[in-house]
Amino acid sequence: MLSGSTVVAAIQSLRETVGPYTAAVRSRTIYSIRNSRIYRWFTAPPEPEVIVIDLRETYLIAPVLALLDRTVAVLRPWFHASQLKRGTDILARLVIRAIDTRLGRTIVALFEPPELLQQPDHENQHGESDGDQEPPT
């Protein structure tokens, strides 16, 4: 019934065009986030001398967090039906297309962690590359 529809054809064309970019952006974003210093800092196990306090169990913060949870639960359906959501979806598609440009790749490279960049081999005083040496035993 909908096989000849131009709307269905447009959606399928959009899905075929944007689909590979979405997967690439998603995997690159996940990779960059998981290798960022702040992610590792947040997910690192606590040091033994650090005391961890669950703020949900405090008298001051627990009611604020409960109110925030209820507010988000009420606003979520409205957000999903809003123009703001549609606008952010359009913006996300534009960003996905922009990442494949030279400027987009440059901006992504600026946010990559420094340890992921290729380090050139340095020669030592004997003219040997650092990568050629065997580890000390």
Explained architecture:
By secondary structure, the protein is an all-alpha fold. The chain contains 5 helices and no strands. The model has no long low-confidence stretch (mean pLDDT 78). The chain has one domain. Helix 1 (6-34) packs across helix 4.
Taking Cα atoms only, what radius of gyration do you get, to the nearest Å? 24 Å
Say what oligomer this is: single chain
Q: How many structural domains in the coordinates?
A: 1
Order of helices and strands: HHHHH
What is the number of helices?
5
How many strands? 0
Query: Could you tell me the mean pLDDT?
Result: 78
The level of helicity is 55-70%
Helix-and-strand structural type: mainly alpha
Any low-confidence stretches, pLDDT <50, length ≥5?
none
**Global shape:** flat
State which percent range the strand residues make up. Answer: under 5%
The end-to-end distance, rounded to whole angstroms, is: 73 Å
